[in-house]
Amino acid sequence: MKTVLMTAFEPFGGEHINPSWEAVRSFEGKVIDDARIVVRQLPVVFSACGAVLTAALEELKPHRILCVGQAGGRSDISVERVAINVNDARIADNAGQQPVDEPVVAGGPAAYFATIPIKAVVAALREVGIPASVSQTAGTFTCNNVMYQLLHWLHTSGSAARGGFVHIPYMPEQAAQHPGAPSMSTASVVQALETSLRVILSTENDIRAAGGATH
């Protein structure tokens, strides 16, 4: 049976919960389209998140990988197109680290593109009534760090697996503490992630559809 690795993060930035973990942890042990789902929580620590991810990749040798993170302030499921080789932290991570203008991987390429069918995922989510879009930036915090390290590992290990990253909004209880911030229920995020997994598992070639941005 094929294996899918899903990752999510611990809380950070003064939050007591992380919506990515609240949604992703419910997939542990599930079988979707003949693929077994394995879940790992990643630390919001620049010096550790990649090591935890890499250990899981080497242990499980998954067929597909979907990493998920919180993007407070975003209003939809953001399917990330690209990860860049920069750590530039606006806030400190959970170990008090705050790298500025440092590479994720010294000597690595400037960027990697996701290898999952990002536009097919967005189209499927919209089809089931969940707001979604292609995102042109995963930021420069630990989410981008993890996405870059995932894609770097895939590129350098010779693995035929495919991987990508999805950002999700605050949960409603978080947004209540951030007046005006959008939110999405955990049930909707779980539905979105299951829909995404089915597309990722069944789609070899992405669809051709507009998904760019003007700014």
UniProtKB/TrEMBL annotation:
Keywords: Cytoplasm, Hydrolase, Protease, Thiol protease
Reactions catalysed: Release of an N-terminal pyroglutamyl group from a polypeptide, the second amino acid generally not being Pro
EC class (word): hydrolase
Catalytic residues as annotated in Swiss-Prot or TrEMBL: 80, 143, 167
Superkingdom classification of source: Bacteria
Principal location listed in the UniProt entry: cytoplasm
Molecular function (Gene Ontology), one example: pyroglutamyl-peptidase activity
Pfam families (alphabetical): Peptidase_C15
Subcellular location field: Cytoplasm
One term under GO cellular component: cytosol
EC number(s) per entry: 3.4.19.3
Biological processes annotated in GO: proteolysis
NCBIfam families xref list: PRK13197.1, pyro_pdase
Subunit structure: Homotetramer.
Family per similarity comment: Belongs to the peptidase C15 family.
Biological role: Removes 5-oxoproline from various penultimate amino acid residues except L-proline.
Protein name: Pyrrolidone-carboxylate peptidase
